[in-house]
Amino acid sequence: MQTPFKLSLSAQDIACERGGRTLFRNLDFAVEPGQALLVSGPNGAGKTSLLRQLAGLLPLAGGRLVTDGADADTPIAELSHYVGHLNAAKTAFTVRENLAFWADFLAEGQGDPADHLAGALAAFGLGELGRLPAGLLSAGQKRKLALSRLFAAPRPLWLLDEPSVSLDVASVKKLDGAMRDHLKAGGIAVVSTHVPLETKFTHTLDLGLERAA
Ligand SMILES: Nc1ncnc2c1ncn2[C@@H]1O[C@H](COP(=O)(O)OP(=O)(O)OP(=O)(O)O)[C@@H](O)[C@H]1O
């Protein structure tokens, strides 16, 4: 069994600007090991922007992000998996090659990449499609491939932007199960979704309300 995660993440007084417009400011939250934050709000409220900030893909316009339980020099990007709207798969590579790349690249020094690859192929039942180029997958299968990356390397922070989009009912259940197991292992998750999930979120953040405040 893997060592339980022990990462905490807090956002302190953070702000976000896009195209010269302030989407939110003075935002605070804290997530401890085993906890999940649900980010909600209407279209355009800034959910994707916030997740991209947490993933280190978009600069903060103010405030700071603080982690505890990890080496202070390790950027959040290296502690997290970010699954966004783009599925980030190499279309000419097969399903297996994509997952093998992630297992080799992301899980270096964290156990046997072959074990991670097997876990990733099994997580959303992509084993049978292993030889298919990722570009030929259906929309839901592409989303499953992106989510399978969560299993290609153990990382304490999952940043999931509308993770259930295009998934069938059984796969949404698998996603809920995966999140439950991740939280049980002490992982943390920040999730934006318009669709109800079974996952028990310990914290919620409504960016629509933040904006109105
Ligand atoms: N590169 C950009 N330049 C300027 N404005 C941008 C840029 N990217 C996003 N925006 C704007 O920032 C705002 C927030 O976008 P974001 O994608 O974060 O919203 P969201 O809450 O995730 O929306 P949705 O629910 O529709 O996915 C939108 O008004 C969008 O037009």
From TrEMBL:
Q: Which SUPFAM superfamilies match?
A: P-loop containing nucleoside triphosphate hydrolases
- UniProt-listed Pfam families: ABC_tran (PF00005)
Instruction: Say if the entry is tagged with keyword Repeat.
Output: no
Which GO BP terms sit in this record? cytochrome complex assembly
PANTHER family in the record: ABC TRANSPORTER I FAMILY MEMBER 1
Name the family the entry cites.
Answer: Belongs to the ABC transporter superfamily.
Q: What name does UniProt use for this protein? A: ABC transporter domain-containing protein
Say which species the protein is native to: Methyloceanibacter superfactus
Organism lineage string: Bacteria, Pseudomonadati, Pseudomonadota, Alphaproteobacteria, Hyphomicrobiales
